Here is the input.
Amino acid sequence: MTEERAMDSEIEMDEMTDSGHKLLLRAVSDGEVLSIEEVPDEIFAQKMIGEGFAVKPTSQLVVAPIDGKLIEVAEAKHAYYIETEEGLKILIHVGIDTLLLNGEGFSTKLKKDDYIEAGDALVAFDEQLITEKGFNTIISVIVLDDEAFELKQTLHPTKEAHAGETVALEIDLKQ
Here is the structure.
């Protein structure tokens, strides 16, 4: 084997064994990016279904944090599950206990199996209606637990996030 061919093989092996890369999750709404522990819901705050971040919204539009396929759109339009190209699943959950509204105050045209890109609109919500009915509009973004992945997450909290632009969470991903 020539020296050049041996070097090519080493490079190919390095690329095959180092399958890690970074994924960036962007803010899903204008507002304040918070640690998931600050969400007033134990399931999210105690990371029972995964790590993530939250946004205290100052706008009534929720956008996709990352490119992917919608693998589920809740009938109540309050929750969206995105699967990335890598197979990582992300939950975007608008509000606390908003399932109980049965879709009232939420508007979307998206459906299961739609492909979306980071920054695409997921849902618009009526903040006034939701808060008048006694619900919190905080938005939780959860990287669902998956043993197939080794994740290192870095939160980027900020008081003034811009939907679809501000990086809220950086994920070092290894399969």
Q: What stands out?
A: The chain has one domain: 19-174. Residues 19-174 form a domain with the Glucose Permease (Domain IIA) fold (CATH 2.70.70.10). Helices lie at 3-17, 42-45, 127-132.
